[in-house]
Design a protein that fits this description.
Blueprint lengths: L1 H35 L5 H18 L4 H20 L8 H15 L2 H21 L1 H6 L1 H78 L3 H32 L7 E4 H14 L7 E6 L4 E6 L1 H17 L5 E11 L2 E10 L6 H6 L10 H4 L7 H11 L3 E6 L5 E16 L11 E4 L8 H18 L3 E4 L2 H10 L4 E5 H6 L1 H7 L4 E6 L12 E4 L2 E2 H15 L7 E3 L4 E5 L3 H12 L4 E5 L2 H10 L4 E5 L7 H11 L6 E6 L6 H8 L3 E4 L4 H11 L6 E3 L12 H19 L4 H6 L5 H13 L1 H13 L3 H18 L2 H16 L2 H25 L7 H20 L3 H10 L4 E2 L2 E2 H13 L3 H16 L8
Parallel strand pairs: 2-4, 2-13, 8-9, 8-10, 10-11, 11-12, 15-16, 15-17, 17-18, 18-19
Antiparallel strand pairs: 1-3, 3-7, 4-5, 5-7, 6-7, 14-20, 21-22
Length: about 900
């Protein structure tokens, strides 16, 4: 777009030059006409021609090509009129070169030829009209006329050759530019593919390292493993940055609207930085405005990336002091502008660095680059993601005085209530005790004070700031104070005093890791980094615990029958597992038609109906059930991921009894169940954990340990198991069932894609790809989700060859994941025959890895085989020699040993797992 604008501006400039030249020439002609007594009527004609030409230019009437022709014709008419007078006979060629020069700028060889034709025609007219007069001067003028003719021809020829050469050069440049663009596109595609391919082995390294760390007791080896894991995590982050950058550069970045909570987003970010030990001696303060809506509709993942990169950059380039993050919102007709400001006390930037900081791979040559690593992609990604979401980025900085980076992003609002509320706020009073001279850098003190001020204003809770201990004691005696916040240094100085205050009030000490009050103290710790949500949560925690109703335990609905209707099998698995946890008898239907049959043949108290289904959507299905079964007392609840603002009202107006958004939240599900079911259908059980008896066997303990190991093994396949389990409310058995269902669909996916493509049913093809995308999101398979999104892009673009290629890549990744996940199901409590098949499959995979020299994958499989025994023999003992050979990169010897083990397995009648 910028190149097109530049070309347009250049064309307007050339037009102006031509018009000024034409105007100057007309003024010369008019002056000669008036002074030499030529035809006076031509003067107003020339003036009219000038007015027409300038009017067309100013109004930009007609296209550029047509306007140029008008200017050229007007020029030629003026040239002809000037040349048909004897007084101008000898200087006509000189004056004709003036429009020629401007036509060279315009690159119009046809206009130069037109000028030459007009010149020679005018000269021929003069010879015919003034032949006698010229004959008298023949001897003196012949040489001059010949010279002028030759000069006109040479200037015209040189001008046309110049235009030809310039056009050839321009074509060559354009060709070269297109080649470079194509090469750049191929490079971007290559980086995207390489990044994608690297993520799986890197995730395997970090996942397997987690398993090894769990079992390793040697401290030296443990430290080495932790170093490997840390390096793997950093490399994984950099690969993700490369993928983001290539998506931004190639215009493939997709903005997806989904509901997200600022509380969850900031908590995840802070925990990530905390686990990476990114703070060292720095302070990080995250100040969130309580009036930010609780649930926003936008691309939460990209907002999270922007925040992560902003904080990461600030921490990298700050040697002492701290980083202050402020998140607020500004009301707009479309929702809000989400405003993010990150301020640091770091080394700052010069004006030149600010201008260049958005460039890819840019890293300053100053002290900034000597204190930080990375690829230099942070600000480039921030800028690209911000622009893609319709926002803007602003940077204010001064060398050695820190930086302030501001980002504003438009977001829609799903739930408008504040993201933070203090229970019984009218009974709360908070005192903050902070030493005035505690902070060596005063900006950090100001950051804390700003956080306190914003919480006071946003929560309508009185907050008192004091700097002296006696001032705090007077405040407690005179005012309503329920909570006292202070730093670890302040607590350590007067431990006994604050322990006494803790007997009456809530005393919260803000401290870093590795510290704790003495045993028995009533003081509570709030770990750094401090943020608004952690403050509000700790204030609410004490109040809510004390007010919890006695006797209300875990909720259940025994005897209730429910039907879940959804066209996506994975969603049925999740919902079925969640409802079973409430002792609800659950049946499922995969379409509206199946739901009508199920309701006709059975009786249900609840029906959870997916909104978006093919053939017959949820609304139509609900209305038919109501029409055909008016006599039945059943609640029909809309179940949809389209949880936009006003969705509940829309579904209720259609006739649904309630609305639940996907993914299902436990609190929301219980609220709906309490509303639509009679009180007699709901029971509460004692939710205290059952005591652990000493009779717990070794096998049972191993099963408990295997839960964590299974999650690590799933994670080693490049799957975000935590993300998947969040859809199952943390239930590992339900998540395993979800993964198992994922594996079972692999062949059906392939057959469906092949049939839809052959029969050119593109809508069905896209529906299968979209189903894979949603399924991948449910189990946390980010790479598969990414491939499915790219495939969907090619479908929307109508690129058949790209569609087929990307569809195959989707299936190949699906099959790879399914095969590997089937193998690690060995740790589940399946049937003996299934375990034997899984073991044989693992051994086969191990042989394949050794044959293709994939030592790292072989190690991964060897770790998976730990704990499996054949009869009385642990297969781990048989594989020790194989493991040594793999460690020594002697894969041929390892393969020979694996074949011997395979023969041993074939000769064994049975085996068991731990």
């Amino acid at each position: 777009m910028s190149n097109e604008l530049e070309r347009r501006e250049n064309a307007l400039g050339i037009h102006l030059i031509i018009l000024f030249s034409y105007t100057f020439f007309c003024l010369i002609v008019m002056a000669h006409a008036l002074m030499l007594g030529w035809e006076i009527w031509t003067v107003p004609v020339l003036i009219v021609g000038l007015l027409i030409s300038w009017s067309l230019h100013i109004a930009q009437t007609f296209d550029s090509h047509f306007r140029l022709w008008i200017y050229a014709v007007m020029n030629m008419l003026a040239l002809f009129f000037y040349g048909v007078h004897p007084e101008s006979f000898l200087i006509l060629s000189l004056l004709s070169m003036m429009p020629m020069a401007t036509f060279v700028l315009a690159g119009r060889a046809d206009f130069i030829r037109l000028t030459m034709v007009v010149y020679y025609a005018t000269m021929a007219f003069n010879v015919l009209l003034f032949g006698r007069e010229l004959e008298m001067m023949h001897s003196r003028l012949a040489g001059w006329v010949l010279l002028h003719f030759t000069l006109e021809f040479l200037v015209g020829w040189i001008s046309m050759q110049s235009i030809k050469k310039r056009n050839e050069d321009e074509q060559s440049y354009n060709s070269r530019i297109n080649e470079l663009r194509e090469a750049n596109k191929r490079t971007e595609d290559f980086l995207t593919n390489v990044s994608h391919e690297l993520r799986t082995p890197i995730n395997a390294v970090t996942g397997i390292t987690s398993i090894m760390l769990k079992n390793e007791t040697n401290m030296r080896k443990k430290m080495n493993l932790m170093s490997i894991q840390g390096a793997g995590n950093r490399l994984s982050d950099q690969i993700s940055d490369i993928m983001d950058t290539t998506e931004i550069a190639t215009g493939r970045l997709r903005v997806v609207d989904e509901n997200y909570m600022m509380s969850s987003l900031t908590n995840d970010l802070i925990m990530g930085f905390k686990l990476m030990d990114a703070f060292k001696d720095l302070e990080l303060i995250v100040d969130v405005d309580p009036f930010v809506p609780s649930i926003l509709l936008g691309d939460g993942r990209k907002v999270k990336k922007i925040l992560r990169h902003l904080i990461d950059n600030a921490l990298k380039f700050t040697r002492k002091g701290g980083v202050y993050v402020r998140i607020s919102s500004c009301r707009k007709e479309y929702g809000i502008n989400l405003n993010i400001s990150v301020q640091d006390t770091g080394v700052g930037m010069t004006s030149d660095e600010i201008d260049r900081v958005k460039e890819k791979f840019y890293q300053s040559d100053s002290g900034r680059s000597r204190t930080a690593g990375g690829l230099g992609l942070g600000m480039s990604i921030i800028n690209g993601l911000t622009v893609a979401m319709g926002g803007f980025l602003q940077i204010d900085s001064e060398k050695n005085k820190g930086s302030v980076v501001r980002v504003s992003i438009p977001q829609k609002v799903t739930r408008d209530n504040p993201c933070m509320v203090i229970a019984s706020w009218e009974k709360i009073g908070i005192a903050c005790y902070i030493w005035a001279d505690k902070f060596k850098i005063t900006e950090v003190r100001d950051y804390y004070f700003e956080l306190v001020t914003h919480l006071e204003e946003g929560l309508s809770v009185p907050v008192f700031r004091v700097t002296e201990l006696d001032e705090l004691e007077r405040l407690i005696n005179r005012r309503q104070v329920t909570h006292v916040f202070l730093g670890w240094e302040e607590y350590e100085k007067d431990t006994a005093t604050f322990d006494q205050i803790g007997e009456r009030l809530d005393v919260i000490v803000v401290a870093g890791s590795g510290v704790a009050p003495w045993e028995g103290s009533r003081v509570r710790l709030l770990s750094k980094p401090i943020n608004s949500f952690s403050i509000v949560n700790i204030v609410n925690e004490g109040r809510l615990n004390s007010e919890k109703e006695a006797g209300e335990g875990k909720m259940s609905c025994p005897g209730v029958r429910a039907l879940i209707v959804d066209d996506e099998i994975m969603n049925l698995v999740v919902a079925k597992g969640l409802l079973k946890d409430y002792k609800i008898a659950v049946e499922t239907a995969e379409s509206g038609i199946d739901a009508l049959k199920a309701v006709k043949d059975g009786h249900y108290d609840l029906i959870f109906m997916d909104h978006m289904m093919p053939e017959m959507d949820g609304v139509e299905t609900m209305k038919r059930i109501r029409r055909y079964h008016e006599d039945r007392d059943m609640a029909i609840i809309a179940l949809t991921a389209n949880a936009v603002s006003g969705a509940r009202e829309m579904f209720l107006s259609e006739g649904f009894d309630e609305f639940v958004a996907k993914p299902i939240e436990q609190a929301e599900l219980e609220r709906v169940l309490k509303k639509v079911l009679p009180e007699s259908a709901i029971a509460y059980e004692d939710d205290k954990p059952e005591p652990v008896h000493s009779s717990l066997g070794k096998a049972d303990s191993a099963l408990v340990d295997n839960d964590t190991e299974d999650v690590n093994l799933i994670r080693s396949q490049g799957i975000d198991a935590e993300e998947g389990m969040s859809y199952c409310m943390g239930s590992l058995p339900l998540y395993k069932e979800l993964v198992s269902s994922f594996c079972e669909q692999a062949e059906a996916i392939k057959d469906g894609l092949d049939a839809a493509f052959r029969q050119e049913r593109m809508e069905d093809y896209r529906a299968i790809i979209r189903s894979v995308r949603d399924t991948a999101s449910l189990i946390g398979a980010e790479d598969l989700r990414y491939l499915a999104e790219r495939a969907e892009d090619s479908i929307l673009a109508g690129d058949v060859s790209e569609m087929e290629y990307r569809g195959k890549r989707v299936y190949e990744e699906y099959r790879r994941l399914a095969n590997n996940l089937r193998a690690i199901e060995l740790k589940d409590d399946g049937q003996k025959g299934d375990k034997e098949n899984s073991l044989r499959r693992l051994i086969g995979m191990l042989k394949g890895c050794l044959a293709t020299y994939e030592a790292d994958r072989a190690t991964e499989i060897l770790n998976t085989l730990r704990g499996i025994h054949i009869g009385d023999t642990y297969i781990e003992d048989l594989l020790n020699g194989v493991r040594r050979d793999v460690d020594n990169i002697d894969l041929h010897a390892a393969a020979v040993k694996v074949e011997e083990i395979e023969r041993f397995i074939d000769g064994t009648r049975g085996f068991t797992g731990d």
